[in-house]
TrEMBL record:
Keywords: DNA-binding, Transcription, Transcription regulation
Annotated organism of origin: Eiseniibacteriota bacterium
UniProt DNA-binding region: 71-90
Membrane-spanning intervals of the chain: none
InterPro entries reported for this sequence: Homeodomain-like_sf, HTH-type_TetR-like_transc_reg, HTH_TetR, Tet_transcr_reg_TetR-rel_C_sf
Region (Disordered): 1-32
Name of the featured protein: TetR/AcrR family transcriptional regulator
Length: 241
């Protein structure tokens, strides 16, 4: 492993929950019936604030110039930090892009889990909430995700086939959650008797198609298809007849 790869691996290890130096861990350990979390030191909070500022700046610069052409100097200037400070947080451009994608992925999955935790709502409201959270997150970060879709569409055919065979971690994580949701719909007698894996694949295929359509279209005040409509369309085909 060359020095750059080793440094990048160390940087990624700091982003894993529970990894040494992972400041947000204490926040997740506090809960009902547990003692309060240990306060995060001021220096760690400051470092985390700077990191978030850099990630937000990177999203803006990459959205404007592309991940291959957005310069680290531009990102540092947008974040209000020195280039040296930026490199203290991220080894290189690839490390920064990976961290940005992981940050947006983690935020999306956290929001999805919070929506699905409301079990008293019933299957259809939770299906709608699942879709609404995904659509809202993509809309919030529309320019960045539009860029990723454009870069994905520019891959050679072999790359697209490989991507279909090995879906992104975000897509795979959402599909696992969709499978659990489909099992609930089956138990409630709302969905037709099919394998939950197939129902989840159909739902995620619909989501992917809708997002590609929305991200490829000019920005508009609101998406052409909302979560309630998407849930209704899905249930028209997958609902029990």
């Amino acid at each position: 492993m060359n020095p750059s790869s080793a440094a990048r691996a160390r940087s990624r290890s700091l982003r894993r929950p529970g990894a040494r130096g992972s400041a947000p861990l204490a926040l997740h350990r506090a809960g009902a019936g547990r003692p309060p979390a240990v306060p995060i030191p001021l220096r760690a909070r400051l470092r985390e604030t700077i990191r978030h500022s850099i990630l937000d700046a990177a999203e803006a610069i990459f959205s404007e110039h592309g991940t291959a052409h957005g310069r680290m100097e531009q990102i540092a200037a947008r974040a209000g930090v020195s280039v040296g400070t930026l490199y203290n947080h991220f080894v290189d451009r690839r490390d920064l892009v990976d961290a940005l994608i992981e940050s947006r992925r983690s935020a999306l999955l956290l929001a999805v889990d919070e929506a699905l935790a409301r079990r008293e709502a019933g299957f259809v409201p939770r299906l709608t909430a699942f879709l609404d959270v995904i659509f809202a997150h993509i809309e919030t970060h529309r320019r960045f995700f539009s860029l990723l879709v454009q870069e994905e569409s520019g891959r050679p055919p072999g790359g697209l086939i490989a991507a279909a065979a090995h879906p992104s971690p975000t897509f795979a994580a959402l599909k696992r959650r969709a499978q659990r949701l489909m099992r609930e719909g089956l138990r409630a007698g709302i969905l037709r008797r099919e394998r939950p894996e197939m129902l989840a694949a159909l739902l995620m295929g619909m989501i992917r198609g809708l997002l590609q359509h929305e991200l490829g279209a000019p920005p508009r005040p609101r998406p052409s298809l909302g979560a309630e409509q998407a849930a209704s369309f899905f249930l028209e085909g997958a609902g029990r007849q």
